[in-house]
Amino acid sequence: MKNQLHITAKEQETAVLVAVPAYKQTDEKTKEYLDELAFLTETVGAKTLKRFVQKLDKPDMRTYVGKGKLEEIVAYVKEHKVDMVIFDDDLSPSQVRNLERELEVKIIDRSLLILDIFALRAQTATARAQVELAQYRYLLPRLTNMWTHLSRQKGGGVAMRGPGETEIETDRRIVREKITLLNEKLEKFEKQNFEQRKSRSGIVRVSLVGYTNVGKSTIMNLLTKADVFAENKLFATVDATVRKMVIDNIPFLLSDTVGFIRKLPTKLIESFKTTLDEIRESDLLLHVVDVSHASFEEHIGVVNDTLKDIHSADKPIILVFNKTDLYLEQREQELKEDNPEALPDINELKSSYMAKQHNPAIFISATNRANIDELRQALLDQVSKIHYERYPNNAPQEY
């Protein structure tokens, strides 16, 4: 029959989420962590159907969850023909094998999910090589012909980008060769990037850092009038973007870097050396915080811990509390509901211990362009100080 329509769109994959929180962890915190895992799942294009939670002293060594909970998950997965089960922790190779045997679907842990997002987001040759290296490092101890039968059935999908697609790719010798080649390729990229950084060694360098999805790219666009990709999804930026800025005749470089997240895979930190070098070699950090997020204080801690891991915690920092517009909307809603534990108003927040611990601390809304002038001035003050220490002969008389 002519003019017959054929549906060619790929059917959206489905997932269930599984978490084993510690007994002391509150239900509210567990929900928040699973919300983040659901957001990660959505970012790779899959749909979450259900969440399973089991409180244990520690995850089961064999199957992560206990026998009864596993039977519950198996029944749901078979009834609803779920494509994958995603765990909010890293799984051991033996746990993956045991869970695949029981569930007969793709088993994805937190690290693999984040790696898959990075594979989806990487644009430059350097970023793609870094992600691929992290994938192979993740894959090497887990070589069990992972999901090859599922790959043939599904034709790709979540966690099927790059490594793991065909049986030959699961051969240990080939994977080790791939790792060696990628390391050599990244060494060449590193030499090129080093030469680029050396050519701009005299200029002050500033990096935007923060938890993922806090608005770094939007701030980058505002400050530099650049066209950096910004989206309300986790890890919208994977590649480091560097732009030159001049404020009051003071030149400096501003870099937008990959967002951090709790339980950031160690393999990614190891592989993203070139990108993280932008942070390591910066003179000043703009630590951007989503003040409207209920756990923004925890996010500050995650970023600070990651900065320690990459030996960058001792740098001068401007703390930028972003999304004050959303924060104020939440406060207004709570006051309407006559909530006695309503959020403090913005002035109370400015005088809080967090703001006092960081000097300067700036409160802005990048979306509404609120208080951007104060941010520019704080940035100018800090950059000028570094610039004139480096070039004292250029300093104005009164400086």
UniProtKB/TrEMBL annotation:
Pfam families: GTP-bdg_M, GTP-bdg_N, MMR_HSR1. Keywords: Cytoplasm, GTP-binding, Magnesium, Metal-binding, Nucleotide-binding. Mg(2+) binds at S217, T237. It is found in: Cytoplasm. It comes from the Bacteria. GO terms for molecular function: GTP binding; GTPase activity; metal ion binding; ribosome binding. Its cofactor is Mg(2+). GO terms for cellular component: cytoplasm. Residues 204-387 form the Hflx-type G domain. CDD domains: HflX. GTP binds at residues 210-217, 235-239, 256-259, 322-325, 365-367. The keyword Cytoplasm applies. Belongs to the TRAFAC class OBG-HflX-like GTPase superfamily. HflX GTPase family. GTPase that associates with the 50S ribosomal subunit and may have a role during protein synthesis or ribosome biogenesis. Monomer. Associates with the 50S ribosomal subunit. This is GTPase HflX.
